[in-house]
């Protein structure tokens, strides 16, 4: 699962061909022992990420919405990916 971004100790990854798990475009976030799946808009689907980190992830997803949509399409079609800048 490629690492597509990283910020404030949060790792953001996107699986290749992961449409069966949640049936919608999404990414995965890991923060220490916590993890979750998020829509490309930044809404949590499943997981136990603390609220503070959920807000950071949502802000990041909002800023990079178009890039996330392009990445989802690219990674599902070709398996290739690109990095997305983290929060600063």
From TrEMBL:
<dbReference type="InterPro" id="IPR025427">
    <property type="entry name" value="DUF4160"/>
</dbReference>
<protein>
    <submittedName>
        <fullName>DUF4160 domain-containing protein</fullName>
    </submittedName>
</protein>
<dbReference type="Pfam" id="PF13711">
    <property type="entry name" value="DUF4160"/>
</dbReference>
């Amino acid at each position: 699962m490629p690492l597509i971004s990283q910020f404030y100790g949060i790792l953001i990854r996107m699986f290749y061909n992961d449409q069966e798990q949640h049936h919608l475009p999404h990414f995965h976030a890991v923060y220490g022992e916590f993890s979750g799946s998020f829509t490309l808009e930044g809404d949590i689907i499943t997981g136990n990420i603390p609220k503070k980190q959920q807000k950071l992830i949502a802000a990041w997803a909002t800023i990079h919405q178009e890039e996330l949509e392009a990445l989802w399409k690219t990674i599902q079609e070709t398996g290739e990916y690109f990095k997305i800048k983290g929060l600063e």
